């Protein structure tokens, strides 16, 4: 073994398993024409305006980016109606999730998040030797916000809420969030991760940006990786009170967002039409996918996002490999309350048909006597 011994909390870290890249599956299985429905990417691709902005920025690649991301923060601030110093940028919002843990969790300090929520919360907390407090989700796989409020103790510094939640696809309402924020008060910074916000059309969905503006102890997170179609560039943002942002900025790597990411994000923000088209596509195809699952008697959790959590009868690890052989990459999830579940992203219509065809062959047929 080379190198010094890492502390136990590092050696014991779970390894994040990303959705398999298409090229890797092609190499491993020798199958071509692969459909990736594993990482909740925008099936329509990036905004053409973002692509044009990247092309325009290329000749300056020898220059370091603006480390503060001033121009992007300025556009974001104007759009969101906040001050520029209330915005922090990250190499994806996952980096901000990690910066928050580094900033606020000293050894043994606690972060509360739902047991059936985004894996990055767990990794962020474990990496800094913090303590993860994870109340189980409700029977409907939603955040159990009253239980989460009760889990806040004297050592709690952070609460991560995914709204909507990955991998469950569920959301909580304005009334539920108000109650939670009332109960938590100033005892913890409540981080509301809205990575899928652009897809949600429910009237009772709360945009936690309103809570930041009301001076509540909240940071809201957004990303360009999902509806904006820029997952490969790595750019996301957090909005909170200026003093919270200034504190988190102390642990930010100086040039954490690239010049191309900043340029593309600015252009993508100016392409409402692309986001609207992506949302409409998603609503249509999500309804189609859920309808087809229902018709086949396959269990799933109703979703407001661009993916569906499907619950299989059989071993999901085996099924995942079978789907892969059929050229369809889905994302197995696991852990308490999610046994034999997989997350399936909404693709193009033909990609969704490919998934359903494989499902018929691998699952539905078997289920019939
Ligand atoms: C995809 C996702 C993100 C965004 O990740 P990036 O680092 O911005 O690509 C954040 N939170 C949740 C819950 C997600 O599913």
Can you give a write-up of this model?
The protein has 369 residues and is of the alpha/beta class. The protein folds into two domains: 17-45 and 273-362, Aspartate Aminotransferase, domain 1; 48-270, 3-Layer(aba) Sandwich (Aspartate Aminotransferase, domain 2). It has helices spanning 8-11, 22-29, 48-57, 70-80, 93-104, 119-127, 145-150, 174-184, 209-213, 242-249, 259-269, 272-295, 316-325, 349-367, and strands at residues 35-36, 87-90, 110-113, 131-133, 156-162, 189-193, 218-223, 236-239, 299-301, 307-311, 328-329, 331-333, 341-345. The strands form three sheets. The protein has a seven-stranded mixed beta sheet with strand order 2-8-7-6-5-3-4, with helices on both faces. Strands 9-10-13-12 form a four-stranded antiparallel beta sheet, covered by helices on one side. Strands 1-11 form a two-stranded parallel sheet. Helix 3 (48-57) runs antiparallel to helix 11 (259-269) and helix 5 packs parallel to helix 6 (119-127). It is globular. The chain starts with 7 loop residues before the first helix and ends with a helix. It binds pyridoxal-5'-phosphate (PLP). Pyridoxal-5'-phosphate is lined by residues 40, 92-94, 118, 162, 166, 193, 195, 223, 225-226, 231, 236.
User: In what range is the share of β-strand residues?
Assistant: 5-15%
Largest sheet, in brief, is: 7 strands, mixed
CATH class of the largest domain: Alpha Beta
Distance between the termini: 53 Å
The domain tally reads 2
| CATH architecture grouping of the largest domain | 3-Layer(aba) Sandwich
Indicate the mean pLDDT.
Answer: 95
Q: What name goes with the CATH superfamily of the largest domain? A: Type I PLP-dependent aspartate aminotransferase-like (Major domain)
Shape: globular
Question: How would you classify the helix and strand content by structural class?
Answer: alpha/beta
Bound molecule types: pyridoxal-5'-phosphate
Tally of DSSP β-strands: 13
Low-confidence runs: none
Order the strands across the largest sheet as they lie in space: 2-8-7-6-5-3-4
Q: Could you state the order of secondary-structure elements as H and E?
A: HHEHHEHEHEHEHEHEEHHHEEHEEEH
Rg calc: 21 Å
CATH topology of the largest domain: Aspartate Aminotransferase, domain 2
Helix share, percent: 40-55%
Q: Number of helical runs?
A: 14
């Amino acid at each position: 073994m080379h190198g010094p011994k890492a502390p136990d909390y590092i050696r014991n870290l779970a390894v994040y398993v990303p959705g398999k890249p298409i090229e890797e599956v092609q190499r491993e299985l020798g199958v071509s024409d692969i459909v990736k429905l594993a990482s909740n990417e925008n099936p329509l691709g990036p905004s053409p305006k973002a692509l044009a902005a990247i092309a325009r920025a290329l000749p300056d690649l020898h220059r370091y980016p603006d480390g503060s991301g001033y121009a992007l923060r300025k556009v974001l601030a104007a759009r969101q109606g906040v001050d520029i110093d209330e915005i922090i940028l990250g190499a994806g919002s996952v980096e901000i999730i990690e910066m928050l843990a580094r900033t606020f969790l000293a050894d043994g300090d606690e972060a509360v998040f739902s047991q059936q929520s985004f894996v990055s919360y767990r990794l962020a907390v474990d990496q800094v030797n913090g303590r993860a407090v994870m109340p189980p989700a409700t029977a409907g796989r939603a955040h159990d916000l009253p239980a989460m409020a009760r889990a806040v103790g004297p050592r709690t510094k952070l609460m991560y809420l995914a709204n909507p939640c990955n991998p469950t696809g569920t959301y909580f309402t304005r009334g539920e969030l108000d109650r939670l924020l009332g109960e938590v008060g100033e005892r913890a910074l409540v981080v509301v991760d809205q990575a899928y916000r652009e897809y949600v059309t429910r009237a009772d969905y709360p945009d936690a940006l309103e809570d930041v503006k009301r001076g509540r102890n909240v940071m809201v997170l957004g990303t360009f990786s999902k509806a904006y179609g820029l997952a490969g560039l790595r750019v996301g943002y957090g909005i909170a009170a200026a003093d919270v942002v200034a504190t988190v900025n102390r642990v930010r790597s100086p040039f954490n967002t690239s010049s191309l990411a900043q340029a593309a994000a600015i252009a993508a923000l100016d392409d409402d039409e692309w986001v609207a088209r992506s949302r409409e596509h998603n609503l249509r195809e999500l309804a189609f996918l859920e309808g087809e699952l229902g018709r086949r008697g396959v269990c799933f959790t109703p979703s407001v996002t661009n993916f569906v959590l499907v619950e299989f009868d059989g071993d999901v690890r085996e099924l995942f490999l079978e789907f892969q052989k059929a050229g369809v990459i889905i994302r197995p999830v696991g852990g308490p309350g999610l046994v034999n579940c997989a997350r399936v992203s909404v693709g193009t219509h033909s990609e969704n048909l490919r998934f359903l065809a494989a499902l018929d062959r691998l699952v539905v047929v078997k289920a019939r006597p």
